From TrEMBL:
It comes from Micromonospora matsumotoense. Belongs to the PGI/PMI family. Keywords: Isomerase. The keyword Isomerase applies. This is Phospho-glucose isomerase C-terminal SIS domain-containing protein. It comes from the Bacteria. Residues 55-191 form the SIS domain. GO terms for biological process: carbohydrate derivative metabolic process; carbohydrate metabolic process. Pfam families: bact-PGI_C. The keyword Isomerase applies. One of its GO terms (molecular function) is carbohydrate derivative binding. Residues 1-30 are annotated as: Disordered.
Amino acid sequence: MEGTAGVSGRRVADESMLDDPEAVANHDPGGMLRFTASAGAQVRESAALAAEANLALLEDEGRPRAVVIAGIGTAGRTGDVLATVAGPRCPVPVIPHRSAGVPGWVGAADVVIAVSASGRSPEALGAAEAAHRRGARLVAVGAPDSQLQSVAERARAPFIPVPRRAPARASLWALTVPVLLAARTLGLVKVNEADLAETAARLDADADRCRSTAESFVNPAKSLALGLAGSIPIVWGSSPLATVAARRFGDTLSANARYPVVTGALGEAGRGRVGLLDGVFGGLVESTRDIFADGDEVEPDPTRLRLVLLRDGGLNADDDTDEPLAVEERRADAVQTLAERRGVRCDVVTAEGGSALERLASLIAVPDFASIYLALAHGLDPMAVPAVTEMKELSNP
């Protein structure tokens, strides 16, 4: 069928192939595992490139009224990361924006950070052009020698180049670090060089733990992937930081493994979505299998929910109370208990590290690899997503 070249895969995951490094390499011809393993290097490279950009221009007019981070897809997630790392005590609003242009109120008192891995996304380009017209301060982050760089040059705005060494969805850290460092220049976050170094080291360590030659019983990403195989994943984050990681996992499960997934904040889930555990895909639904049926007539087990809970026991440095932490921890304990009572299996990934950025990295790294291993277990190439290419062709003039 036209437009579906490269679509393949099996309905039932092949668990054995994940412990065959040669088979893994053959099913990953585009190198998504290798690109994902470069996350630590992305942090270091982007920090160096940001240091070479003239971000001091941002300081000339002092603290902005608001900061808008414009982008879509992985670029859009950078705004979520900044808003969460900045925390609730950030002195100005930090607003992720995923549509073309900018909000109507944006003007000379504001800063727009336009982000695009390719440097040509309509959302980032439209935001950069609108910021320039309205006299807002602009920062652009994207591929060198791109349309976005041209807009930044016309606006005499700082441009931080991000070389296209990996697909956009495997470039989260390359895009995020410049955004954070621009925000640091504006006095909005307290990310220092030690935080960046520790985050990069954390990503390197997790990449080593999740390497293709590590067998499933010691590889947390392979174990997570095999647990999710054949299920409908629900990924909930126990805190704002963990919720960003949960939504990122939803992105990669959809794009890499082509799995439908429900993601969100645990607090919101407790107001309604936790009812999924009682639904027809939950663990207590009565089976209709005929135990006396012939072997050839036995239907496979129905698809069930699989809960992934991302837990973050840390606090932002400027929090002055343990109450938010206590509430989040109680909710996380409660949902684990509910899942256990209903027979819904639950995987838990717990944040580690001192800074907010390092804790976020610890919640993102293993799930990133798990989404790739899940694709490979189903015989899918995680790099090739024909529907994405077709969508771009059909929607572009």
